[in-house]
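Support request, please re-run this one:
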Amino acid sequence: MRKSVLAIGAHPDDIEIGCGGTLLSLVKKGYDIYLVIMTNGENWQCKTKNVRIVEQEEASRYLLANHTFYLNCRDGYMQKDPTVIDQLTEIIQEVDPQIIFTHYASDYH
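Re-run finished. Output below.
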């Protein structure tokens, strides 16, 4: 049975900054890596959303991610939303992760 990890980040680059090293160490231990990017980071003034997605794809390859899911939520306006909850539920059921990484409860993301 394959072991899997699911990492969920608000924006492109959040996962790599928050737990990239840990994900790479888990790859070495035989885990499959799956990423969820909630928004495309379009509110970041220095880069367009297209650039951020290209950078995320490169980072996903570097992390040896099996798949990256993009939920395309509106950057800066994340709320409890039944549609998003359903999407995340489906991803969790599909991936069946043994470990989930995400932002901590008081993170401003």
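The chain has a mean pLDDT of 89. The CA atoms of residues 11 and 41 lie 5 Å apart.
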